[in-house]
Amino acid sequence: MNIPEHLRYTKDHEWISVQEDGTTALVGITDFAQSELGDIVFVETKPAGTSLDEHDAFGTVEAVKTVADLFAPVSCEILEVNEALDAAEIVNSDPYGDGWMVKVALKEPSQVDGLLNASAYRELVGE
Amino acid sequence: MPFIANTDRDREEMLRDIGVSSFEELLPDIPATCRLDRELDLPAAIGEMEVADLLSSLAESNQHAPGYTSFLGGGAYDHYIPAALRTIVSRSEFYTAYTPYQAEVSQGTLQAIYEYQSMICRLYGMDVANASLYDGATALGEAVALALNVTGCSRVMVAGRIHPNTTEVLKTFVEPGGKASLEQNSLKDGLCDFEALEASMSDSVAAVIVQQPNFYGSLEDVQRIGEIAHRHNALFIVSADPVSLAVLEAPGVYGADIAVGEGQPLGSALNFGGPYLGIFAVSEKYVRKLPGRLVGLTKDRDGEDGFILTLQTREQHIRREKATSNICTNQALNALQAVVYLSLVGKTGLRQVAELSMQKAHYLAGKINELPGYSVRGDAPFFREFVVDTPVDASVVVQRMLEHGFFAGCDLGLFGETGLLCAVTEKRTKAEMDRFVECLGSLS
Protein backbone atom coordinates (compact mmCIF):
# COMPACT_ATOMS: atom_id res chain seq x y z
CA MET A 1 0.00 0.00 0.00
CA ASN A 2 1.44 3.34 -1.06
CA ILE A 3 1.34 5.88 1.80
CA PRO A 4 3.70 8.76 0.97
CA GLU A 5 5.57 10.22 3.96
CA HIS A 6 5.10 13.91 3.01
CA LEU A 7 1.27 13.88 3.07
CA ARG A 8 -1.28 14.20 5.86
CA TYR A 9 -4.30 11.91 6.08
CA THR A 10 -7.81 11.69 7.53
CA LYS A 11 -9.79 8.80 9.00
CA ASP A 12 -12.07 9.20 5.97
CA HIS A 13 -9.15 8.21 3.70
CA GLU A 14 -8.45 11.58 2.16
CA TRP A 15 -4.95 13.01 1.79
CA ILE A 16 -3.95 16.64 1.84
CA SER A 17 -0.79 18.13 0.43
CA VAL A 18 0.02 21.66 1.56
CA GLN A 19 1.71 23.61 -1.24
CA GLU A 20 4.90 25.65 -0.92
CA ASP A 21 2.95 28.85 -0.28
CA GLY A 22 1.69 27.33 2.96
CA THR A 23 -1.90 28.53 2.38
CA THR A 24 -3.16 26.30 -0.43
CA ALA A 25 -3.36 22.54 -0.66
CA LEU A 26 -4.38 19.68 -2.92
CA VAL A 27 -6.88 17.09 -1.65
CA GLY A 28 -7.51 13.58 -2.93
CA ILE A 29 -8.31 10.06 -1.77
CA THR A 30 -5.71 7.54 -0.68
CA ASP A 31 -4.38 4.49 -2.47
CA PHE A 32 -6.20 2.39 0.15
CA ALA A 33 -9.51 4.17 -0.60
CA GLN A 34 -9.24 3.71 -4.36
CA SER A 35 -8.40 0.03 -4.01
CA GLU A 36 -11.34 -0.53 -1.62
CA LEU A 37 -13.77 1.26 -3.96
CA GLY A 38 -12.67 -0.60 -7.08
CA ASP A 39 -13.07 0.83 -10.59
CA ILE A 40 -13.91 4.49 -10.16
CA VAL A 41 -16.27 5.77 -12.84
CA PHE A 42 -17.21 9.26 -11.76
CA VAL A 43 -16.14 12.01 -9.41
CA GLU A 44 -18.42 14.91 -8.61
CA THR A 45 -17.37 17.84 -6.43
CA LYS A 46 -18.86 21.13 -5.39
CA PRO A 47 -17.71 24.02 -7.62
CA ALA A 48 -14.82 26.41 -7.09
CA GLY A 49 -15.79 29.11 -4.61
CA THR A 50 -17.51 26.72 -2.21
CA SER A 51 -16.61 27.38 1.42
CA LEU A 52 -16.24 24.30 3.62
CA ASP A 53 -15.82 23.57 7.30
CA GLU A 54 -13.76 20.64 8.51
CA HIS A 55 -15.65 17.35 7.73
CA ASP A 56 -18.14 19.00 5.34
CA ALA A 57 -18.98 16.79 2.39
CA PHE A 58 -17.62 18.37 -0.78
CA GLY A 59 -18.45 15.70 -3.33
CA THR A 60 -18.88 12.06 -4.15
CA VAL A 61 -16.78 9.41 -5.78
CA GLU A 62 -18.62 6.68 -7.68
CA ALA A 63 -17.39 3.19 -8.31
CA VAL A 64 -19.33 0.61 -10.31
CA LYS A 65 -21.47 -0.62 -7.43
CA THR A 66 -20.94 1.93 -4.69
CA VAL A 67 -20.64 5.61 -3.99
CA ALA A 68 -18.71 7.39 -1.24
CA ASP A 69 -18.75 10.92 0.10
CA LEU A 70 -15.70 13.16 0.05
CA PHE A 71 -15.05 15.17 3.23
CA ALA A 72 -13.01 18.32 3.69
CA PRO A 73 -9.94 17.39 5.81
CA VAL A 74 -9.79 20.96 7.18
CA SER A 75 -11.75 24.22 6.86
CA CYS A 76 -11.11 25.59 3.42
CA GLU A 77 -12.50 27.10 0.24
CA ILE A 78 -12.40 25.26 -3.07
CA LEU A 79 -10.19 27.13 -5.54
CA GLU A 80 -10.11 24.67 -8.38
CA VAL A 81 -11.61 21.34 -9.38
CA ASN A 82 -9.40 18.87 -11.25
CA GLU A 83 -10.71 18.92 -14.83
CA ALA A 84 -8.77 15.75 -15.60
CA LEU A 85 -11.25 13.79 -13.45
CA ASP A 86 -13.57 13.59 -16.47
CA ALA A 87 -11.51 10.44 -16.97
CA ALA A 88 -12.18 9.24 -13.42
CA GLU A 89 -10.02 6.12 -13.73
CA ILE A 90 -6.93 8.26 -13.08
CA VAL A 91 -7.98 8.18 -9.41
CA ASN A 92 -7.30 4.44 -9.53
CA SER A 93 -4.03 4.71 -11.43
CA ASP A 94 -2.53 7.79 -9.75
CA PRO A 95 -4.41 8.67 -6.54
CA TYR A 96 -1.66 10.94 -5.14
CA GLY A 97 -0.72 12.59 -8.45
CA ASP A 98 -2.95 13.30 -11.46
CA GLY A 99 -5.93 11.93 -9.51
CA TRP A 100 -6.10 14.87 -7.07
CA MET A 101 -9.65 16.18 -6.66
CA VAL A 102 -9.70 19.78 -5.50
CA LYS A 103 -7.26 22.58 -4.85
CA VAL A 104 -8.24 24.53 -1.74
CA ALA A 105 -7.32 27.66 0.19
CA LEU A 106 -6.74 26.79 3.85
CA LYS A 107 -8.70 28.89 6.35
CA GLU A 108 -6.54 27.83 9.30
CA PRO A 109 -3.32 26.20 8.06
CA SER A 110 -2.55 24.99 11.58
CA GLN A 111 -5.47 22.53 11.37
CA VAL A 112 -3.34 20.39 9.04
CA ASP A 113 -0.99 19.58 11.94
CA GLY A 114 -3.88 17.87 13.71
CA LEU A 115 -4.31 15.32 10.88
CA LEU A 116 -2.76 11.86 10.72
CA ASN A 117 0.83 11.51 9.54
CA ALA A 118 1.88 8.63 7.31
CA SER A 119 2.71 6.22 10.14
CA ALA A 120 -0.55 6.95 11.99
CA TYR A 121 -2.52 6.40 8.77
CA ARG A 122 -0.61 3.19 8.05
CA GLU A 123 -1.67 1.98 11.49
CA LEU A 124 -5.30 2.99 10.77
CA VAL A 125 -5.48 0.88 7.63
CA GLY A 126 -3.80 -2.00 9.43
CA GLU A 127 -0.44 -2.20 7.69
CA MET B 1 -48.08 -18.05 -10.38
CA PRO B 2 -49.35 -21.15 -8.53
CA PHE B 3 -51.95 -20.87 -5.79
CA ILE B 4 -50.22 -21.29 -2.45
CA ALA B 5 -52.51 -22.70 0.20
CA ASN B 6 -52.19 -21.69 3.84
CA THR B 7 -54.14 -24.31 5.78
CA ASP B 8 -54.39 -24.70 9.57
CA ARG B 9 -51.99 -27.59 9.26
CA ASP B 10 -49.48 -25.50 7.25
CA ARG B 11 -49.58 -22.82 9.91
CA GLU B 12 -49.10 -25.35 12.71
CA GLU B 13 -46.08 -26.79 10.93
CA MET B 14 -44.53 -23.37 10.40
CA LEU B 15 -45.05 -22.40 14.04
CA ARG B 16 -43.57 -25.71 15.21
CA ASP B 17 -40.59 -25.16 12.89
CA ILE B 18 -39.73 -21.80 14.42
CA GLY B 19 -40.39 -23.12 17.93
CA VAL B 20 -43.48 -21.24 19.07
CA SER B 21 -46.78 -22.77 20.05
CA SER B 22 -49.15 -20.13 18.73
CA PHE B 23 -49.27 -17.11 16.43
CA GLU B 24 -50.03 -14.93 19.46
CA GLU B 25 -46.55 -15.67 20.79
CA LEU B 26 -45.13 -13.72 17.85
CA LEU B 27 -46.98 -10.55 18.82
CA PRO B 28 -45.91 -9.57 22.36
CA ASP B 29 -44.21 -6.41 21.07
CA ILE B 30 -47.54 -4.95 19.95
CA PRO B 31 -49.16 -3.12 22.89
CA ALA B 32 -52.59 -4.43 23.92
CA THR B 33 -54.14 -1.01 23.24
CA CYS B 34 -53.15 -1.33 19.60
CA ARG B 35 -54.71 -4.77 19.16
CA LEU B 36 -58.13 -5.16 17.58
CA ASP B 37 -59.23 -8.01 19.88
CA ARG B 38 -62.07 -9.14 17.63
CA GLU B 39 -62.63 -10.61 14.19
CA LEU B 40 -62.66 -8.23 11.21
CA ASP B 41 -66.17 -7.04 10.38
CA LEU B 42 -66.46 -8.75 7.00
CA PRO B 43 -69.37 -10.50 5.31
CA ALA B 44 -69.35 -14.28 5.35
CA ALA B 45 -67.32 -16.02 2.66
CA ILE B 46 -69.17 -16.99 -0.52
CA GLY B 47 -68.36 -19.53 -3.19
CA GLU B 48 -66.32 -18.87 -6.32
CA MET B 49 -69.36 -19.03 -8.61
CA GLU B 50 -71.24 -16.48 -6.48
CA VAL B 51 -68.18 -14.20 -6.44
CA ALA B 52 -67.92 -14.38 -10.24
CA ASP B 53 -71.63 -13.49 -10.57
CA LEU B 54 -71.31 -10.59 -8.15
CA LEU B 55 -68.25 -9.18 -9.89
CA SER B 56 -69.76 -9.43 -13.38
CA SER B 57 -72.94 -7.71 -12.24
CA LEU B 58 -70.83 -4.90 -10.75
CA ALA B 59 -68.75 -4.68 -13.95
CA GLU B 60 -71.90 -4.44 -16.06
CA SER B 61 -72.93 -1.26 -14.31
CA ASN B 62 -69.85 0.44 -15.83
CA GLN B 63 -70.12 2.21 -19.15
CA HIS B 64 -66.98 1.09 -20.90
CA ALA B 65 -65.35 2.11 -24.16
CA PRO B 66 -65.98 -1.08 -26.19
CA GLY B 67 -69.76 -0.64 -25.82
CA TYR B 68 -69.72 2.99 -26.95
CA THR B 69 -68.24 5.14 -29.67
CA SER B 70 -65.67 7.17 -27.80
CA PHE B 71 -64.43 10.69 -28.40
CA LEU B 72 -62.89 10.84 -24.95
CA GLY B 73 -59.30 11.97 -24.64
CA GLY B 74 -57.80 14.40 -22.17
CA GLY B 75 -54.68 12.33 -21.60
CA ALA B 76 -55.91 8.81 -22.40
CA TYR B 77 -56.51 7.79 -26.02
CA ASP B 78 -58.49 4.95 -27.51
CA HIS B 79 -56.02 3.81 -30.18
CA TYR B 80 -56.25 0.37 -31.68
CA ILE B 81 -54.16 -2.31 -29.99
CA PRO B 82 -53.05 -5.07 -32.37
CA ALA B 83 -54.21 -8.55 -31.27
CA ALA B 84 -50.64 -9.89 -31.40
CA LEU B 85 -49.64 -7.48 -28.63
CA ARG B 86 -51.65 -9.21 -25.95
CA THR B 87 -50.36 -12.64 -26.99
CA ILE B 88 -46.75 -11.51 -26.91
CA VAL B 89 -46.84 -9.60 -23.63
CA SER B 90 -48.78 -12.41 -21.93
CA ARG B 91 -45.90 -14.86 -22.41
CA SER B 92 -44.84 -15.89 -18.94
CA GLU B 93 -41.18 -15.04 -19.67
CA PHE B 94 -42.21 -11.41 -20.13
CA TYR B 95 -45.18 -11.00 -17.84
CA THR B 96 -43.96 -8.93 -14.94
CA ALA B 97 -45.01 -5.59 -13.53
CA TYR B 98 -41.55 -4.39 -12.52
CA THR B 99 -37.88 -4.67 -13.32
CA PRO B 100 -37.00 -7.96 -11.65
CA TYR B 101 -34.70 -8.38 -8.69
CA GLN B 102 -31.38 -9.91 -9.76
CA ALA B 103 -32.24 -8.17 -13.01
CA GLU B 104 -29.32 -9.52 -15.02
CA VAL B 105 -30.70 -13.05 -14.74
CA SER B 106 -33.70 -11.90 -16.80
CA GLN B 107 -31.86 -11.07 -20.01
CA GLY B 108 -35.07 -11.13 -22.08
CA THR B 109 -36.77 -8.54 -19.89
CA LEU B 110 -33.67 -6.35 -19.90
CA GLN B 111 -33.40 -6.61 -23.68
CA ALA B 112 -37.05 -5.57 -24.05
CA ILE B 113 -36.42 -2.55 -21.79
CA TYR B 114 -33.24 -1.69 -23.69
CA GLU B 115 -35.16 -1.77 -26.99
CA TYR B 116 -37.91 0.33 -25.38
CA GLN B 117 -35.33 2.93 -24.27
CA SER B 118 -33.81 2.98 -27.76
CA MET B 119 -37.19 3.50 -29.43
CA ILE B 120 -38.15 6.29 -27.02
CA CYS B 121 -34.83 8.02 -27.80
CA ARG B 122 -35.59 7.81 -31.54
CA LEU B 123 -39.16 9.02 -31.11
CA TYR B 124 -38.32 11.93 -28.79
CA GLY B 125 -34.95 12.77 -30.38
CA MET B 126 -33.17 12.50 -27.03
CA ASP B 127 -29.84 10.93 -25.97
CA VAL B 128 -30.93 8.75 -23.06
CA ALA B 129 -34.30 7.34 -21.97
CA ASN B 130 -34.87 5.46 -18.73
CA ALA B 131 -36.73 2.18 -18.29
CA SER B 132 -39.96 4.22 -17.68
CA LEU B 133 -41.69 5.79 -14.69
CA TYR B 134 -45.20 5.36 -13.30
CA ASP B 135 -47.16 7.65 -15.63
CA GLY B 136 -46.89 10.86 -17.62
CA ALA B 137 -47.76 13.09 -14.66
CA THR B 138 -45.15 11.65 -12.29
CA ALA B 139 -42.61 11.67 -15.13
CA LEU B 140 -43.16 15.42 -15.42
CA GLY B 141 -42.86 15.68 -11.62
CA GLU B 142 -39.49 13.90 -11.73
CA ALA B 143 -38.40 16.20 -14.58
CA VAL B 144 -39.17 19.22 -12.41
CA ALA B 145 -37.30 17.67 -9.46
CA LEU B 146 -34.29 17.11 -11.72
CA ALA B 147 -34.37 20.71 -12.93
CA LEU B 148 -34.61 22.09 -9.39
CA ASN B 149 -31.73 19.83 -8.38
CA VAL B 150 -29.27 20.74 -11.14
CA THR B 151 -30.02 24.46 -11.32
CA GLY B 152 -30.41 25.18 -7.61
CA CYS B 153 -33.18 27.59 -8.66
CA SER B 154 -36.64 27.78 -7.15
CA ARG B 155 -39.21 28.83 -9.76
CA VAL B 156 -40.92 26.47 -12.17
CA MET B 157 -42.89 28.06 -15.01
CA VAL B 158 -45.72 26.31 -16.81
CA ALA B 159 -45.98 27.82 -20.29
CA GLY B 160 -49.32 27.08 -21.94
CA ARG B 161 -52.00 24.82 -20.55
CA ILE B 162 -50.97 21.42 -19.27
CA HIS B 163 -53.46 18.83 -18.03
CA PRO B 164 -54.99 20.17 -14.76
CA ASN B 165 -54.51 16.78 -13.08
CA THR B 166 -50.82 16.95 -13.99
CA THR B 167 -50.62 20.37 -12.37
CA GLU B 168 -52.00 18.84 -9.16
CA VAL B 169 -49.33 16.11 -9.28
CA LEU B 170 -46.60 18.70 -9.95
CA LYS B 171 -47.63 20.62 -6.86
CA THR B 172 -46.92 17.53 -4.76
CA PHE B 173 -43.36 17.49 -6.15
CA VAL B 174 -42.68 21.22 -5.94
CA GLU B 175 -44.52 22.70 -2.98
CA PRO B 176 -43.62 20.52 0.03
CA GLY B 177 -40.59 21.98 1.74
CA GLY B 178 -41.63 25.46 0.67
CA LYS B 179 -38.43 26.05 -1.26
CA ALA B 180 -39.87 26.11 -4.76
CA SER B 181 -42.94 27.40 -6.50
CA LEU B 182 -45.00 26.35 -9.49
CA GLU B 183 -46.30 29.22 -11.59
CA GLN B 184 -48.85 29.09 -14.40
CA ASN B 185 -48.03 31.56 -17.13
CA SER B 186 -51.05 33.39 -18.53
CA LEU B 187 -52.69 32.22 -21.73
CA LYS B 188 -53.66 34.08 -24.87
CA ASP B 189 -56.44 32.41 -26.88
CA GLY B 190 -55.69 29.14 -25.08
CA LEU B 191 -52.00 29.21 -25.98
CA CYS B 192 -48.83 30.35 -24.23
CA ASP B 193 -48.65 34.14 -23.99
CA PHE B 194 -45.05 34.81 -25.02
CA GLU B 195 -44.88 38.43 -23.83
CA ALA B 196 -46.15 37.40 -20.39
CA LEU B 197 -43.70 34.49 -20.25
CA GLU B 198 -40.76 36.66 -21.26
CA ALA B 199 -41.77 39.27 -18.68
CA SER B 200 -42.03 36.78 -15.84
CA MET B 201 -38.70 35.06 -16.49
CA SER B 202 -35.72 35.63 -14.19
CA ASP B 203 -32.45 33.96 -13.27
CA SER B 204 -34.24 32.04 -10.51
CA VAL B 205 -36.32 29.99 -12.95
CA ALA B 206 -35.26 26.33 -12.87
CA ALA B 207 -37.42 25.13 -15.73
CA VAL B 208 -40.04 26.07 -18.27
CA ILE B 209 -42.60 23.35 -18.96
CA VAL B 210 -44.72 22.94 -22.05
CA GLN B 211 -47.15 20.20 -23.03
CA GLN B 212 -47.35 19.43 -26.76
CA PRO B 213 -50.12 19.24 -27.88
CA ASN B 214 -51.43 21.25 -24.95
CA PHE B 215 -54.38 20.24 -22.77
CA TYR B 216 -56.83 21.68 -25.32
CA GLY B 217 -55.21 19.67 -28.11
CA SER B 218 -53.62 22.73 -29.76
CA LEU B 219 -50.04 22.94 -30.88
CA GLU B 220 -47.82 25.41 -29.06
CA ASP B 221 -44.91 27.27 -30.66
CA VAL B 222 -42.51 25.08 -28.73
CA GLN B 223 -39.41 26.37 -30.50
CA ARG B 224 -40.12 29.87 -29.23
CA ILE B 225 -40.85 28.72 -25.67
CA GLY B 226 -37.57 26.76 -25.66
CA GLU B 227 -35.64 29.83 -26.78
CA ILE B 228 -37.13 31.90 -23.97
CA ALA B 229 -36.23 29.19 -21.41
CA HIS B 230 -32.65 28.87 -22.61
CA ARG B 231 -32.10 32.62 -22.82
CA HIS B 232 -32.68 32.65 -19.04
CA ASN B 233 -30.59 29.50 -18.37
CA ALA B 234 -33.66 27.51 -17.39
CA LEU B 235 -34.10 23.91 -18.41
CA PHE B 236 -36.66 23.33 -21.15
CA ILE B 237 -39.02 20.47 -20.27
CA VAL B 238 -41.36 19.13 -22.92
CA SER B 239 -44.23 16.74 -22.23
CA ALA B 240 -45.10 15.34 -25.64
CA ASP B 241 -47.69 12.83 -26.80
CA PRO B 242 -45.75 9.89 -28.27
CA VAL B 243 -48.14 9.24 -31.18
CA SER B 244 -48.04 12.89 -32.22
CA LEU B 245 -44.28 12.56 -32.67
CA ALA B 246 -44.83 10.49 -35.80
CA VAL B 247 -45.93 13.71 -37.50
CA LEU B 248 -44.52 16.49 -35.29
CA GLU B 249 -40.92 17.52 -34.65
CA ALA B 250 -39.18 15.60 -31.85
CA PRO B 251 -38.53 17.53 -28.59
CA GLY B 252 -34.79 16.87 -28.85
CA VAL B 253 -34.73 18.63 -32.22
CA TYR B 254 -36.14 21.86 -30.81
CA GLY B 255 -33.91 21.87 -27.78
CA ALA B 256 -35.67 20.00 -24.96
CA ASP B 257 -33.34 19.27 -22.05
CA ILE B 258 -35.84 16.78 -20.63
CA ALA B 259 -38.63 15.14 -22.62
CA VAL B 260 -41.43 13.24 -20.93
CA GLY B 261 -44.77 11.86 -22.01
CA GLU B 262 -47.75 9.73 -21.13
CA GLY B 263 -47.03 6.44 -22.89
CA GLN B 264 -50.57 5.01 -22.69
CA PRO B 265 -51.29 5.64 -26.40
CA LEU B 266 -48.48 3.18 -27.23
CA GLY B 267 -50.34 -0.09 -26.77
CA SER B 268 -51.73 0.30 -23.25
CA ALA B 269 -55.50 -0.15 -22.88
CA LEU B 270 -57.52 2.65 -21.28
CA ASN B 271 -57.67 0.56 -18.06
CA PHE B 272 -59.90 3.05 -16.21
CA GLY B 273 -56.98 5.46 -15.94
CA GLY B 274 -54.06 3.19 -15.15
CA PRO B 275 -51.59 1.57 -14.92
CA TYR B 276 -50.05 3.85 -17.53
CA LEU B 277 -46.52 4.55 -18.67
CA GLY B 278 -44.22 7.42 -17.76
CA ILE B 279 -41.84 8.22 -20.59
CA PHE B 280 -38.67 10.01 -19.46
CA ALA B 281 -35.68 11.04 -21.57
CA VAL B 282 -32.84 13.52 -21.14
CA SER B 283 -29.94 14.96 -23.05
CA GLU B 284 -26.69 13.20 -22.15
CA LYS B 285 -25.60 16.10 -19.95
CA TYR B 286 -28.14 15.03 -17.30
CA VAL B 287 -27.66 11.26 -17.44
CA ARG B 288 -26.30 11.07 -13.88
CA LYS B 289 -29.36 12.88 -12.57
CA LEU B 290 -31.74 10.61 -14.48
CA PRO B 291 -34.34 9.08 -12.14
CA GLY B 292 -35.26 5.41 -12.28
CA ARG B 293 -33.70 2.38 -13.81
CA LEU B 294 -31.49 2.33 -16.85
CA VAL B 295 -30.59 -0.73 -18.91
CA GLY B 296 -27.28 -0.76 -20.77
CA LEU B 297 -25.68 -2.99 -23.37
CA THR B 298 -22.34 -4.58 -22.53
CA LYS B 299 -20.15 -7.57 -23.40
CA ASP B 300 -19.99 -10.65 -21.20
CA ARG B 301 -16.73 -12.52 -20.54
CA ASP B 302 -17.16 -14.48 -23.76
CA GLY B 303 -17.48 -11.25 -25.74
CA GLU B 304 -21.23 -11.76 -26.35
CA ASP B 305 -23.75 -8.95 -26.03
CA GLY B 306 -25.46 -8.81 -22.66
CA PHE B 307 -27.79 -6.41 -20.85
CA ILE B 308 -27.26 -4.91 -17.41
CA LEU B 309 -28.76 -2.32 -15.12
CA THR B 310 -26.27 0.50 -15.48
CA LEU B 311 -25.32 3.74 -13.68
CA GLN B 312 -26.89 2.29 -10.54
CA THR B 313 -24.91 4.61 -8.30
CA ARG B 314 -27.57 7.24 -9.14
CA GLU B 315 -30.13 5.14 -7.34
CA GLN B 316 -31.46 5.21 -3.83
CA HIS B 317 -30.30 1.75 -2.74
CA ILE B 318 -26.71 2.91 -3.22
CA ARG B 319 -26.81 6.68 -2.82
CA ARG B 320 -29.20 6.53 0.12
CA GLU B 321 -30.48 9.91 1.31
CA LYS B 322 -28.40 11.72 -1.30
CA ALA B 323 -30.23 10.07 -4.19
CA THR B 324 -32.03 12.64 -6.30
CA SER B 325 -35.04 10.36 -6.87
CA ASN B 326 -36.59 7.51 -4.92
CA ILE B 327 -37.91 5.72 -8.00
CA CYS B 328 -36.41 2.23 -7.81
CA THR B 329 -38.51 0.42 -10.38
CA ASN B 330 -40.43 1.02 -13.59
CA GLN B 331 -43.67 0.15 -15.39
CA ALA B 332 -42.10 -2.90 -17.00
CA LEU B 333 -45.31 -4.38 -18.39
CA ASN B 334 -46.53 -1.09 -19.92
CA ALA B 335 -43.05 -0.41 -21.29
CA LEU B 336 -43.15 -3.88 -22.81
CA GLN B 337 -46.54 -3.10 -24.33
CA ALA B 338 -45.06 0.09 -25.80
CA VAL B 339 -42.05 -1.65 -27.32
CA VAL B 340 -44.21 -4.47 -28.72
CA TYR B 341 -46.73 -1.93 -30.07
CA LEU B 342 -44.00 0.12 -31.77
CA SER B 343 -42.44 -3.04 -33.19
CA LEU B 344 -45.76 -4.28 -34.56
CA VAL B 345 -46.93 -1.03 -36.17
CA GLY B 346 -43.42 0.04 -37.20
CA LYS B 347 -42.33 3.47 -38.31
CA THR B 348 -44.81 3.59 -41.20
CA GLY B 349 -47.65 2.24 -39.10
CA LEU B 350 -47.17 4.78 -36.33
CA ARG B 351 -47.18 7.53 -38.93
CA GLN B 352 -50.43 6.13 -40.34
CA VAL B 353 -51.99 6.03 -36.87
CA ALA B 354 -51.00 9.66 -36.32
CA GLU B 355 -52.09 10.84 -39.76
CA LEU B 356 -55.43 9.05 -39.64
CA SER B 357 -56.15 10.39 -36.15
CA MET B 358 -55.25 13.89 -37.25
CA GLN B 359 -57.23 13.77 -40.51
CA LYS B 360 -60.30 12.31 -38.81
CA ALA B 361 -60.11 14.86 -35.99
CA HIS B 362 -60.00 17.64 -38.57
CA TYR B 363 -62.93 16.11 -40.46
CA LEU B 364 -65.02 15.94 -37.28
CA ALA B 365 -64.05 19.46 -36.20
CA GLY B 366 -65.11 20.78 -39.61
CA LYS B 367 -68.48 19.00 -39.42
CA ILE B 368 -69.17 20.16 -35.86
CA ASN B 369 -68.28 23.73 -36.81
CA GLU B 370 -71.06 23.64 -39.43
CA LEU B 371 -73.68 22.77 -36.80
CA PRO B 372 -75.82 25.67 -35.61
CA GLY B 373 -74.97 26.54 -32.01
CA TYR B 374 -71.64 24.65 -32.01
CA SER B 375 -68.20 26.05 -32.70
CA VAL B 376 -64.67 24.73 -32.50
CA ARG B 377 -62.76 27.07 -30.22
CA GLY B 378 -59.83 29.08 -31.57
CA ASP B 379 -57.95 28.67 -34.82
CA ALA B 380 -54.68 27.21 -33.52
CA PRO B 381 -53.43 24.10 -35.33
CA PHE B 382 -54.32 20.88 -33.52
CA PHE B 383 -53.40 17.21 -33.66
CA ARG B 384 -56.19 14.82 -32.63
CA GLU B 385 -58.10 16.81 -30.05
CA PHE B 386 -60.01 20.11 -29.93
CA VAL B 387 -62.45 22.08 -27.77
CA VAL B 388 -66.06 22.60 -28.83
CA ASP B 389 -68.28 25.36 -27.46
CA THR B 390 -71.70 23.79 -27.13
CA PRO B 391 -75.20 25.32 -27.21
CA VAL B 392 -76.07 23.66 -23.90
CA ASP B 393 -73.72 22.90 -21.01
CA ALA B 394 -71.08 20.30 -21.94
CA SER B 395 -72.18 18.09 -19.05
CA VAL B 396 -75.66 17.96 -20.60
CA VAL B 397 -74.18 17.09 -24.00
CA VAL B 398 -72.16 14.27 -22.44
CA GLN B 399 -75.21 12.90 -20.63
CA ARG B 400 -77.54 13.09 -23.62
CA MET B 401 -75.01 11.60 -26.03
CA LEU B 402 -74.56 8.59 -23.74
CA GLU B 403 -78.18 7.71 -24.58
CA HIS B 404 -77.16 7.70 -28.26
CA GLY B 405 -74.22 5.38 -27.55
CA PHE B 406 -71.45 8.00 -27.56
CA PHE B 407 -68.81 9.15 -25.13
CA ALA B 408 -69.01 12.69 -26.48
CA GLY B 409 -65.77 13.87 -24.93
CA CYS B 410 -64.32 15.34 -21.80
CA ASP B 411 -66.51 17.92 -20.04
CA LEU B 412 -64.16 20.79 -19.19
CA GLY B 413 -66.61 21.75 -16.44
CA LEU B 414 -64.84 19.02 -14.43
CA PHE B 415 -61.86 21.39 -14.37
CA GLY B 416 -63.78 24.58 -13.70
CA GLU B 417 -63.86 25.59 -17.36
CA THR B 418 -66.44 25.45 -20.13
CA GLY B 419 -66.51 23.45 -23.33
CA LEU B 420 -66.28 19.89 -24.56
CA LEU B 421 -62.85 18.40 -25.31
CA CYS B 422 -63.21 15.91 -28.20
CA ALA B 423 -60.51 13.45 -29.26
CA VAL B 424 -60.49 11.35 -32.41
CA THR B 425 -58.31 8.31 -32.99
CA GLU B 426 -57.81 6.18 -36.10
CA LYS B 427 -60.49 3.81 -34.75
CA ARG B 428 -63.36 6.18 -35.50
CA THR B 429 -65.08 5.72 -38.86
CA LYS B 430 -66.65 8.36 -41.07
CA ALA B 431 -70.05 6.75 -40.43
CA GLU B 432 -69.56 7.02 -36.64
CA MET B 433 -68.51 10.64 -36.89
CA ASP B 434 -71.41 11.53 -39.21
CA ARG B 435 -73.89 9.92 -36.85
CA PHE B 436 -72.25 11.69 -33.89
CA VAL B 437 -72.65 15.06 -35.64
CA GLU B 438 -76.25 14.22 -36.50
CA CYS B 439 -77.02 13.40 -32.85
CA LEU B 440 -75.23 16.55 -31.64
CA GLY B 441 -77.38 18.54 -34.05
CA SER B 442 -80.53 17.07 -32.56
CA LEU B 443 -79.60 18.46 -29.11
CA SER B 444 -79.49 22.13 -30.00
UniProtKB/TrEMBL annotation, chain A:
<dbReference type="GO" id="GO:0005960">
    <property type="term" value="C:glycine cleavage complex"/>
</dbReference>
<dbReference type="InterPro" id="IPR003016">
    <property type="entry name" value="2-oxoA_DH_lipoyl-BS"/>
</dbReference>
<comment type="subunit">
    <text>The glycine cleavage system is composed of four proteins: P, T, L and H.</text>
</comment>
<comment type="function">
    <text>The glycine cleavage system catalyzes the degradation of glycine. The H protein shuttles the methylamine group of glycine from the P protein to the T protein.</text>
</comment>
<dbReference type="Pfam" id="PF01597">
    <property type="entry name" value="GCV_H"/>
</dbReference>
<feature type="domain" description="Lipoyl-binding">
    <location>
        <begin position="24"/>
        <end position="105"/>
    </location>
</feature>
<feature type="modified residue" description="N6-lipoyllysine">
    <location>
        <position position="65"/>
    </location>
</feature>
<dbReference type="GO" id="GO:0009249">
    <property type="term" value="P:protein lipoylation"/>
</dbReference>
<dbReference type="GO" id="GO:0019464">
    <property type="term" value="P:glycine decarboxylation via glycine cleavage system"/>
</dbReference>
<dbReference type="InterPro" id="IPR011053">
    <property type="entry name" value="Single_hybrid_motif"/>
</dbReference>
<dbReference type="InterPro" id="IPR033753">
    <property type="entry name" value="GCV_H/Fam206"/>
</dbReference>
<dbReference type="GO" id="GO:0005829">
    <property type="term" value="C:cytosol"/>
</dbReference>
<protein>
    <recommendedName>
        <fullName>Glycine cleavage system H protein</fullName>
    </recommendedName>
</protein>
<dbReference type="InterPro" id="IPR017453">
    <property type="entry name" value="GCV_H_sub"/>
</dbReference>
<comment type="similarity">
    <text>Belongs to the GcvH family.</text>
</comment>
<dbReference type="InterPro" id="IPR000089">
    <property type="entry name" value="Biotin_lipoyl"/>
</dbReference>
<dbReference type="InterPro" id="IPR002930">
    <property type="entry name" value="GCV_H"/>
</dbReference>
<keyword id="KW-0450">Lipoyl</keyword>
